[in-house]
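Continuing from the previous page of notes. For each protein in this section, the sequence appears first, followed by its structure tokens. Read the first protein now.
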Amino acid sequence: MLPEEIDRAAVLAALPDGWPVPISAPVAQRLCVPIGIDEAELAPVVLDFADSPHLLVFGDSGCGKTALLRGICRSLMESNTGAQARIIVGDYRRTMLGVVEGDHLGGYAPGASVLSAMTTELAGIFERRLPGADTTQQQLRDRSWWAGPEVFVIVDDYDLVASSGQNPLTPLLDYLPQAKDIGLHLIIARRAGGAGRALYEPVIARLRELSTPGLVMSGSRDEGALVGTARPGPMPPGRGILVRRNGNELVQTAWLQQS
């Protein structure tokens, strides 16, 4: 039922409330990101980063992982100002060069030393965002005890990052469970080859413990179940199994040409 390819513009045109979401909208609306269409109804699939702050993506080279990350970045920039959402890009292979620019770019890391310095600085910011003893219940309900942008750390080719000795994302590890309260979002894309062995790497293991949504794209079935019960397998570019708390769905992610 799914097309071999669908352009991002076609996905946005099918959204019932239009796109982009106004920057004056509540944060819960501005953090909803369309990524493609589902097989069941050929309707737009939207990730809600306000409800589920992180995302895991597995797939082999050419499966469409980077195009998905580009689309997520574009959507965040269209519905948020730089003061509302800041994006940190970890990009060892330079596949995301120029995708995020201007006020939305919190930092671009082409290597381990730069990414490590950025995440260490971010850890200090998130430590200050944790609720303190004087935080009231109303502030907890409204999440109003801190001010600042939502921070998205988006890492392509995570297999290169995690294999670089000391993982540069380690400083963020303790803050992942409290991400909704402190405005932290981690999105990592990794090749499917060898992913079965990497599931117990600390960052991926913590994300799995948190029931993080995941997209499993083309790869070898021998890797086993990578997110929930979803296994990789031979699939066209852009195709994947999206695993969320309410079940699995086959989706075709939107294609976004690199500008």
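Done with the first. The second protein uses the same format. Note its length before scrolling.
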Amino acid sequence: MKLRDLGEFPFLRRLRERLPADPRVLLGVGDDCAAVALPGTTVLTTDAMIEGVHFRREWTTLTMLGAKAFAINASDILAMGGEPTFALLSLGVPQDTEVEDLDAFFEGFLRAASDCGTALIGGNMSAAPCLMISVTLLGQLLHGVIARAGAKVGDDVYVTGTLGDAALGLRMLQEGRTDPSAEYVKERFLCPTVRFAVSRALAAWHLAHAMIDVSDGLLQDLGHLCEAGHVGAVIDAPALPLSPAYQTMLGKNHWDTALTGGEDYELLFTAAQAQREPIGQLSQTSHCPITRLGHIVSRPEGLTVRGSDGAPLTLARSGFDHFRQGRK
């Protein structure tokens, strides 16, 4: 059945029946506004995904797309040391969209939200020439905010997971490659991992001085962190965490994609050298690699990437910028 045959309001009634009860939600989907209980400090973020710009329908299932729409917003909340609580979801949908496809999108979104204890409390739907997704996510700070601006000279610089896979995955989708390594990095682009356990522990144990998620590339986002904190940084390229698939495809000494590729949605943070042992323990207990990449220096020294010989590297670009890149 096409969405134009069912209509907006019958679909929303079907959706409302799928939403679990949540004691924090006083009024949810179906009223002019949602009403929720919000103790403590609340953080908010919003992000949009537009067909033809951020994704192509032939590359992904609608279930995977729903999960990614949640994950990229949750990553911002986690980068502040928060826990996602409530979501608002607005969709622009072509009228000839199959209702089953829209059901699949919500299945992915709701499953990802449930994994983080997040309730969908409202949003909007409208007819549109292509699929457009806008998510607003609210989060709760239980242990204080971890901002970009807290890095201190002498801090270690860490990143979770591996770098460059998502950018490489996008390239493989564009080229149509299907070998095992290509399939791995494509999944990293289509299904980013939410580092919920790591963020929760960093906040609860007060380990991180500053944090940001890697959405536009390591160098770009580390540059934002350094600018906010009025500091510089030195990064050792041989320390970059590269997946086996990345190394198979590009080699272990190809660093450009890992340094500048976007959409990994890993956590990038700084911490005092005295925290090396607990951070190592966190890496083990969370089953998530946490790699020390370098250290924070004074601002006049800027942001430097050193190669295997310790000499500074020169890179063609620093990361992704929506208004300086070609369309996907």
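What the second structure shows: The mean pLDDT is 93. The two ends are 30 Å apart (CA to CA). We return to this in next week's lecture.
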